[in-house]
């Protein structure tokens, strides 16, 4: 009698474990399935194929005189191209690295020293710094000055003073010939 | 799987969906053809798509655009990056305006779309006797029968179509004319009776004209298609403005496949199907995985449901 | 309120004391007592809710990629199909789930008709359901316009022109609907705005629908009120697991279409960009409108056709007062059961007629079927309420056999007798 009821309770316990296991499996698969469904929805908000395909742009440099600048669009944002003067190149090269908040040598930022190509958005909060047009305020270091929160960039586009944490970024640049570059 | 789809489809039909209602305009239904992409496990055949692209490029593209296809999309056909760039560079696209405000031509890049053969729909219509050639990007999904229809159309011109098919069309048309003629005669007799009554009092009454018996349709000429149209067994109304576009050896296939009319038509139809639904392979592969997952998941849920309900009384 | 909430979690208790959401969820989805004899036809309510959620979630993501402008709408949809990551999947889900939503809701409604779920005290529950159906139809119609294909454009033209049948003000109303002198950019924009809005209105009505449901609880296949605890079981886990299983089966059927025939329920003409100069040879609405479209075309008068079409749904509002029989379930109504199936077949027939050209046999059948649709509600149901002799009802859900309720009731209750 006692053995019987022990047997029965053992059986009902087994039943319960099996049931709980099934619930657990079902819940786990439900979570996995929902996740698998949610992922494409989230991923759809990433850049689409035709946006990624527009990743490069070609620029003819020949019309830019020494000392002048040109702003072009790349991936929906401005890129600064400056045809630097000898003085500007020298100034950028002569700075000691330990004076810089974001230490980078000018030589590492250019392909040819007379052509500086940098992203045109302040690394603080994304405003477009002044300094492209001849009359613009160029900041204390002769490069660019961001009017939003007062960041000063030098003639290599490096941050020298102000809240911006990093230098203006250098996009991938390739010289197709002497006066044509491909950005991206 | 196929059976499941069929069952589901049958269930849907019983629910009152009559889908794919036959088009009213008279034309033969395109016979169904077996494609590499037919069925649940079918995929596109890249070699065939490349050949189809060659046919499109060398023949169709002089009149038909494919606005939705970019050169980068051709990677699906199995070309590598360098080949794609070379293909794109063969095309000129209009870009601009440049810094002087002028538009200029330049070789196409991967991100560019196939250039249209005509500047706009009006130019396309004007150059083609008033009927603008449709864009082919989506044509395989925009016609009942899809690639089957396209293949049937391209092989459905008078010289290419079989005698049985012609006879079938002639019989249908003859029958239709007989029915119409009988109806017209009936109406005529009613009018004639009225006239005979009326003419007794009013001698100026006009006698109704007797309808002409159109006679049987025994040849393509009897169909009375307009001069500008070519006969096509599968085009609604049988008269198509497009002259037979393909013929044997009109292109020389790079891979040495014989350029028979049948091959040319099948290849370019497959290419158009790809253009309309480039994600089909991906979709089917994902579908098989999802259904396997759901089968296991639903099985577990069923077991859980059974266990859960076992003690309900 | 929170005395039934069993939890040891202090945070949950703290929140629940101030905002009893957990108690509410517990009462509506966990402990909620449901009749223990609900069959699988009762799964379709939760399935409809599931479909609504899927539609809203996919729709929001699609709206982020869609451009509501006549020049860009068609290509923006194709961009979703080709360039957006997983865009083809999301759009095909949205497209096919719309059809499946209607399948589920139609079955849900026929279940209500068969088991008399609209009868007292659930009249308002039923009427709210009809409101949801109307909102769904409006939403689906406007959604079909958004891709701006040929069927979108001509469907919009034909359906909005229905309002021109209204005497005196008809023309002015149609111009107002269009925001111009034809279906054009203003029309597309407002349809997009409303297509985005209405699903949330549906959610609101669904909440009220559930509120009304929980007032008296679900009807059941026997159509008698559940008596006390022995007739009821808690919603969780019994019906949560059963509904989840239903969702699994539903998704299997759905996946068959989604992955292997995603355009089966659509129309090829909608892959041709809208062209106001060329009407497609056959204008056919989406399948779920076909029975109503058939009613519209069966009546040779423009205004009366429109009136009949709207009346075919409007009549559902007064159904609880047309059917006077005190017995709910068709199980115990031997004559009504036959008329139910006749009515069901009639609806299928109307659907078939709706997609045929309105001439010859389909036209005649359509007129007969339309007449029968209204006769069923206006003549058959009131007469049956008086003339039909229902079978004896069981005493309770738990004891149908003891009631001597006849073979049918006993057989129907049998599956529940295992244990």
UniProtKB/TrEMBL annotation, chain A:
| Compartment annotation | Cell membrane
Specify the enzyme's EC class, one word.
Answer: translocase
According to its UniProt record, the EC number is 7.1.1.8
Which residues span the membrane? 21-42
Q: Which residues form the Rieske domain?
A: 92-182
Q: Name one GO cellular component term.
A: plasma membrane
Listed A to Z, the keywords are: 2Fe-2S, Cell membrane, Disulfide bond, Electron transport, Iron, Iron-sulfur, Membrane, Metal-binding, Translocase, Transmembrane, Transmembrane helix, Transport
Cofactor(s) essential for the protein: [2Fe-2S] cluster
Q: Which SUPFAM superfamilies match?
A: ISP domain (SSF50022)
Major localisation: membrane
Q: How is the cofactor bound?
A: Binds 1 [2Fe-2S] cluster per subunit.
What is the protein's membrane topology class? Single-pass membrane protein
Q: Which reaction does it catalyse?
A: a quinol + 2 Fe(III)-[cytochrome c](out) = a quinone + 2 Fe(II)-[cytochrome c](out) + 2 H(+)(out)
Which NCBIfam families does the protein's record reference? Rieske_proteo (TIGR01416), TAT_signal_seq (TIGR01409)
Q: Summarize subunit and interaction data from the UniProt record for this chain.
A: The main subunits of complex b-c1 are: cytochrome b, cytochrome c1 and the Rieske protein.
Q: Which family does it belong to?
A: Belongs to the Rieske iron-sulfur protein family.
Give additional notes from the record.
Answer: The Rieske protein is a high potential 2Fe-2S protein.
What does this chain do?
Component of the ubiquinol-cytochrome c reductase complex (complex III or cytochrome b-c1 complex), which is a respiratory chain that generates an electrochemical potential coupled to ATP synthesis.
Full protein name: Ubiquinol-cytochrome c reductase iron-sulfur subunit
Gene name as annotated:
petA
């Amino acid at each position: 009698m006692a053995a019987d009821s022990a047997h029965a309770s053992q059986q009902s316990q087994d039943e319960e474990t099996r049931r709980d296991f099934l619930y657990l499996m079902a819940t786990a698969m439900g979570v996995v399935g929902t996740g698998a469904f949610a992922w494409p929805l989230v991923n759809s908000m990433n850049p689409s194929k035709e946006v990624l395909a527009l990743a490069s742009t070609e620029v003819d440099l020949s019309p830019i005189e020494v000392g002048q600048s040109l702003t072009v669009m790349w991936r929906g944002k401005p890129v600064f191209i400056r045809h630097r003067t000898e003085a500007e190149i020298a100034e950028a090269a002569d700075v000691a690295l330990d004076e810089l908040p974001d230490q980078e040598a000018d030589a590492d930022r250019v392909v040819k020293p007379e052509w500086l190509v940098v992203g045109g958005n302040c690394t603080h909060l994304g405003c477009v710094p002044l300094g492209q047009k001849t009359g613009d305020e160029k900041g204390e270091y002769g490069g660019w000055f961001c009017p939003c929160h007062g960041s000063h960039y030098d003639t290599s586009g490096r941050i020298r003073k102000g809240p911006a944490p990093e230098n203006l970024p250098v996009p991938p640049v390739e010289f197709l010939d002497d006066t044509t570059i491909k950005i991206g | 799987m196929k059976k499941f789809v069929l069952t589901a489809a049958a269930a849907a039909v019983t629910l009152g969906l009559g889908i794919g209602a036959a088009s009213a305009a008279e034309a033969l239904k395109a016979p169904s053809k077996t494609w590499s992409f037919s069925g649940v496990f079918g995929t596109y055949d890249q070699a065939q798509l490349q050949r189809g692209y060659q046919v499109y490029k060398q023949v169709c593209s002089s009149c038909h655009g494919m606005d939705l296809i970019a050169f980068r999309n051709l990677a699906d056909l199995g070309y590598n990056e360098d080949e794609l760039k070379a293909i794109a560079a063969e095309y000129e696209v209009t870009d601009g305006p440049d810094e002087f405000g002028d538009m200029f031509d330049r070789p196409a890049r991967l991100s560019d779309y196939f250039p249209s053969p005509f500047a706009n729909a009006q130019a396309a219509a004007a150059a083609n006797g008033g009927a603008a050639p449709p864009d082919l990007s989506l044509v395989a999904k925009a016609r009942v029968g899809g690639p089957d229809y396209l293949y049937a159309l391209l092989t459905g011109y008078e010289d290419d179509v079989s005698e049985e098919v012609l006879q079938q069309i002639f019989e249908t048309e003859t029958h239709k004319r007989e029915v119409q003629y009988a109806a017209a005669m009936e109406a005529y007799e009613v009018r004639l009776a009225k006239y005979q009554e009326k003419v007794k009092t009013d001698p100026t009454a006009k006698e109704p004209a007797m309808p002409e018996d159109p006679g049987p349709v025994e040849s393509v000429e009897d169909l009375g298609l307009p001069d500008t149209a070519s006969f096509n067994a599968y085009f609604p109304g049988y008269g198509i403005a497009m002259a037979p576009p393909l013929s044997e050896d009109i292109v020389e296939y790079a891979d040495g496949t014989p350029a028979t009319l049948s091959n040319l038509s099948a290849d370019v139809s497959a290419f158009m199907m790809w253009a309309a639904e480039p994600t089909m392979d991906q979709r089917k592969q994902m579908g098989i995985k999802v259904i396997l997952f759901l089968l296991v998941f639903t099985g577990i849920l069923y077991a859980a449901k059974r266990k859960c309900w076992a003690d309900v009384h | 309120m929170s005395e039934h909430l069993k939890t040891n979690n202090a945070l949950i208790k703290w929140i629940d004391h101030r905002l009893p959401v957990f108690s509410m969820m517990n009462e509506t989805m966990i402990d909620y007592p449901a009749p223990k004899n609900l069959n699988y036809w009762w799964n379709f309510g939760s399935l409809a809710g599931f479909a609504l959620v899927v539609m809203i979630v996919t729709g929001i993501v699609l709206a982020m990629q869609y451009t509501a402008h006549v020049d860009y709408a068609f290509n923006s949809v194709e961009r979703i199909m080709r360039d957006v990551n997983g865009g083809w999947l999301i759009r095909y889900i949205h497209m096919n789930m719309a059809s499946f939503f209607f399948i589920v809701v139609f079955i849900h409604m026929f279940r209500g008709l068969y088991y008399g779920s609209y009868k007292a005290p659930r009249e308002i529950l039923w009427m709210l359901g009809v409101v949801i159906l109307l909102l769904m139809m409006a939403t689906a119609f406007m959604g079909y316009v958004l891709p701006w294909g040929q069927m979108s454009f001509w469907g919009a033209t034909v359906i909005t022109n229905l309002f021109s049948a209204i005497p005196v003000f008809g023309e002015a109303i149609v111009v107002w609907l269009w925001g111009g002198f034809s279906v054009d950019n203003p029309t597309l924009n407002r349809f997009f705005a409303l297509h985005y809005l209405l699903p949330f209105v549906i959610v609101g009505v669904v909440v009220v629908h559930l509120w009304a449901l929980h007032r008296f609880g679900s009807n059941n296949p026997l159509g008698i009120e559940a008596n006390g605890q022995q007739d009821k079981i808690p919603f969780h886990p019994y019906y949560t697991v059963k509904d989840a299983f239903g969702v699994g089966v539903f998704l299997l059927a759905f996946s068959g279409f989604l992955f292997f025939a995603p355009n089966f329920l659509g129309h090829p003409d909608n892959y041709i960009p809208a062209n106001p100069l060329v009407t497609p040879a056959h204008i056919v609405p989406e399948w779920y409108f076909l029975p109503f479209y058939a009613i519209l075309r069966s009546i040779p008068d423009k205004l009366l056709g429109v009136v009949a079409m709207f009346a075919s749904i409007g009549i559902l509002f007064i159904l609880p007062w047309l059917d006077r029989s005190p017995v709910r379930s068709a199980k115990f109504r031997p004559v009504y059961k036959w008329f139910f199936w006749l009515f069901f077949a009639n609806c299928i027939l109307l659907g078939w007629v709706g997609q045929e050209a309105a001439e010859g046999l389909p036209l005649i059948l359509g007129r007969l079927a339309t007449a029968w649709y209204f006769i069923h509600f206006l003549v058959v149901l009131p007469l049956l309420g008086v003339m039909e002799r229902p079978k004896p009802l069981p005493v309770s859900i738990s004891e149908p056999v003891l009631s001597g309720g006849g073979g049918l009731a006993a057989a129907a209750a049998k599956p529940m007798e295992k244990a």
